[in-house]
Design brief:
By secondary structure, the chain is an alpha/beta fold. The protein contains six helices and 14 strands. Strand 5 and strand 6 form a beta hairpin. The longest helix is centred in the middle third of the chain and has 13 residues. The C terminus is likely disordered.
Length: 230
């Protein structure tokens, strides 16, 4: 079974408590960005990452704005699950932006990235990286993959969200950036069943087709069951 959850920010609690602790080798967990376990390269972080590598299930994550992109770039890119991923060892993988994964007979468009709202107070290469925002090549890669699928996928997984989602909620305020506008663009062109995103630290069902996920664990089964962190 495939399960989704929101930002983990380098904390193991989500994996040690609640439903995730009982998952097995046939399961897959996807973190919707701000994974946070590739951040400072400390001994504590390496210990946590080693613990995750030993989980029986497959762990995939999108990137957000709490990733060290210099450290992340050191991991090799490979073709797996129908898309491009970076293997971090064990069953842990970073999903490259624009990849469409095939999991249990369903297609998942994955697109990470977000703009830090406090980037002016951060230091380049220390706690902020310009790579947090997608490149021209990543936008093009995403559109190319959607073209090949006639702009049809089962699910869309992103870290940030289209401005059309944010404009009608209390999730965010301020000016739209290029990523928001790109997600708006593909939103209008795609046919999809459901769209899930993280980033905003809230568990909110926006509509029958869109949902913001933070601490919830969403089971991508027939009933799309959801559990809250316990």
């Amino acid at each position: 079974m495939v399960y989704l959850t929101g930002d983990t920010h380098g904390e193991l609690d989500r994996f040690k408590c609640g439903k995730l602790r009982w998952l097995g080798k046939r399961d897959t967990v996807i973190v919707l960005g701000d994974f946070g376990f590739v951040w400072d390269g400390s001994k504590k972080e390496k210990k946590h990452l080693d613990w995750l590598r030993k989980r029986p299930y497959t762990l995939l994550f999108l990137d957000g704005c709490h990733e060290n992109y210099d450290l992340l770039a050191q991991y090799p890119v490979e073709e797996k699950f129908g898309g491009k991923v970076q293997a971090l060892g064990g069953n842990v993988y970073h999903v490259c932006r624009g990849s469409v994964l095939e999991l249990e007979g369903k297609s998942y468009l994955c697109f990470g990235g977000a703009e830090s709202q406090d980037k002016e107070d951060r230091e380049d290469g220390v706690n902020w990286w310009p790579q947090e925002m997608p490149s021209d090549e990543e936008y093009a890669f995403c559109e190319q993959n959607l073209e090949q699928r006639n702009w049809q996928v089962d699910y869309v997984l992103t870290h940030d969200a289209p401005s059309r989602f944010l404009d009608f909620t209390a999730l965010a305020s301020g000016e739209n950036n290029r990523l928001h506008l790109f997600l708006d663009k593909i939103l209008l062109k795609m046919q999809y069943e459901k769209w899930y995103f993280g980033c905003y630290h809230k568990d909110v069902q926006l509509s029958t087709k869109s949902r913001c996920v933070f601490c919830d664990v969403v089971c991508m089964g027939e009933r799309h069951a959801a559990w809250r962190k316990k």
